[in-house]
Amino acid sequence: MFAIRSAVAGACLAATLPAFSQTASTASTAATPETSFNPAISLILNGTYANLSRDPETYRFQGFIPSGGEIGPGGRSFQLGESELTLSAAIDPTFNGRFTAAVTPENEVEVEEAWFERTGLFNGATLKGGRFLSSFGYLNGQHAHTWDFTDAPLAYQAFFGGALKNDGLQLRWLAPTDRFIELAAEVGAGRTFPGSDTSRNGAGVFALMAHTGDDIGASSSWRTGISWLRHRASQRTFEDSDSLGTPVTNSFTGRSTTWVLDAVYKWAPQGNATGRSFKLQGEYFRRSESGTLDFDTTSQAGGPLSDSYRNTQSGWYAQAVYQFMPRWRAGLRYDRLDAGNARIGLVDNGTLTEADLPSLIKAKPERSTVMLDYSPTEFSRVRLQFAADRSRGDGTDRQVFLQYIMSLGAHGAHTF
Amino acid sequence: MNLRHLLCVALVGFGLQAHAALKVVACEPEWAALATELGGDQLQVSSATTALQDPHRIEARPSLIARVRNADLLVCTGMELETGWLPVLLQQSGNAKVAPGAAGFFEAGRFVTALDVPARLDRSDGDVHAAGNPHIQLDPRNIALVAKALAERLAQLDAANARVYQERHAAFAARWADALRRWEQQAAPLKGLSVVVHHKNMSYLSNWLGLREVGTLEPKPGLEPSAGHLGALKAQLAKQPAKLVVRAAYQDPRAAQWLSEQARIPAVVLPFTVGGNEQAKDLFGLFDSTLSLLLAAAR
Ligand SMILES: [Zn+2]
């Protein structure tokens, strides 16, 4: 290969050769530590002590269809978090792979991520397949142990039940420009909220995202983006209780479209974040759902009641984290959700009243959070966090968390 | 500008690319300077980091991802120095030309003999690097070894200009050998000089000049200097004095200043890499400046 390449004197042809043959042509270069045969292994230990003024069993986002995902502050007292085990390695000259399992405190193993990746599919393009954290927004692609606060923003919890993991494919392409411009598309089964688990063929979720970013001088940099996600939900069920207090199961079938805007700005003197640094980030979510609402799907008295459902809901958070000296950081976060004005056919035509669907009664949940954390090294961190959470629509939950995050094994690289 | 640039590349296509200079992204300023010495106008060189940044701790910023995406050659130290950020740049850039194992991925650390290779790998020893101490650039003999390998790699990647790289390398190697003789003469008085360093990032300099490192401000590699450790270091220096306390331009001055005042020894800020001070404009200036600062302080 090399002889052919030098014969045509290169750079031009090299640019047009498929990336794979380029890699093969230069395989004489010895292996790097990253490509040694043993995969890099890392294990994250984490846990919290939580003091919550209200019973976490009653946690909900008033006005939002329950996601059934990981919402709320978790349990009271000492809590073991998910222990996260990651293996990653180059598979061969073409593919990389990564596997992350989370062992829950209930002794169950969940596959968080399991994907292969093909870098340089064509110039600037990367294909990923398997189960992966969707790259929409800013925070979704990041593992929980890298978060700046103990818990996820309310918008992530209400709109996606935590983070959106996709079982599917992702294609990313980086434009050949001086400025960072990344376009990505994802397609997946969409089995988790706001999609639903069905036995159909085809895809349940499509997502498109665009991100751009740059530096401002030597000390600052930023990234911003817009994402669009379309989920298909069919018989996405949720529990509620009717106006008589009887538990009922309802379900939604239809289309769910989510827009996400995200932005992050980072500062460090001369780009040296060892001493002081500052990070500002925010995301805005807006979701429109339209379709059919089935009321009391398990009704014994002749089938569920069905009519239209339409709503546009939104939510956002903004947070700032300041590292004021080596190892110490303080942070501030504000979350807000808007449940929107749901158009529920069954209520509009008088079949039901609002009181028959109490979890959908309009509200504007919000939360304010402060945190202080200390990291003796980049492998260990302890954090103290206070929050006033007004998500339930009736009063405030005062939350105190003391958290540890410990990382064993391979040194993970951090995304921006 | 960017959109037009994109269209232009698409339309003019290969013809445009064949004449374009090879785009080199260096992970550290010393390798950017070396590539410029070897490639001159044939190359379009930039450095991902500056002398005022800690090369262990760099953010994988969008601007760097874009630069790696467009690079034909990545010149890095390797030896796990960039492990906290380079893998992200490589993964997100989607550029197979510079992936590990490809000809466009050059690790300088492979061409030198490593110092401080740990006998055991244990994080309780701090942030140790399995492949040895990665701060290889402060021994000019290492620069000569890397220069030879890098010139060969440039000739391999850009075969049409192979002669240019060979000639420029021959000229550089001759100038460097002269400078090396001069530096070694100048530095003769530094032999056996006992110094305290901030981080174990001066080992190659010490090894070259015969300096004796009697302590570090960091209690363990990668850990910030603590009051307790500095106190113990001061007590130790009372028994076995050191002549200087040395740090790199990017490191926090406070610990070195404290020790300098307490132990009454000069604190010296070395440029550490190209761009670390006014005089260190290129690789020659880096060593001229390093030696003159050490000689002035040791007098
Ligand atoms: Zn180091």
Q: How many angstroms does the end-to-end distance of chain B come to?
A: 55 Å
Main sheet: strand order of chain A: 1-3-4-5-6-7-8-9-10-11-12-13-14-16-17-18
- The span between the termini of chain A is 37 Å
Percent strand of chain A equals over 45%
Secondary-structure element order of chain B, N to C: HHEHEHEHEHHEHEHEHEH
Report on the architecture of this protein.
The complex is a heterodimer of chains A (about 425) and B (about 300). Chain A is mainly beta. Chain A has five helices and 18 strands. A 16-stranded antiparallel beta barrel of chain A has the order 1-3-4-5-6-7-8-9-10-11-12-13-14-16-17-18. Chain B has about 300 residues and is α/β, with parallel strands linked by helices. Chain B has eleven helices and eight strands. Chain B has helices at about 1-10, 15-20, 30-40, 60-70, 85-95, 140-155, 160-185, 205-210, 225-240, 255-265, 285-299, and strands at about 20-25, 45, 75, 105, 195, 210-215, 245-250, 265-270. Chain B has a four-stranded parallel beta sheet, covered by helices on one side. A four-stranded parallel beta sheet of chain B has the order 6-5-7-8. In chain B, helix 3 (about 30-40) links the parallel strand 1 and strand 2 (about 45). The radius of gyration of chain B is 21 Å and the shape is globular. At the A-B interface, helix 1, helix 2, helix 3, strand 7 and strand 8 of A face helix 1, helix 2, helix 4 and helix 5 of B. Bound molecules: zinc ion (ZN). Zinc ion binds near residues 56, 135, 199 and 201 of chain B. Chain B: This is Zinc ABC transporter substrate-binding protein.
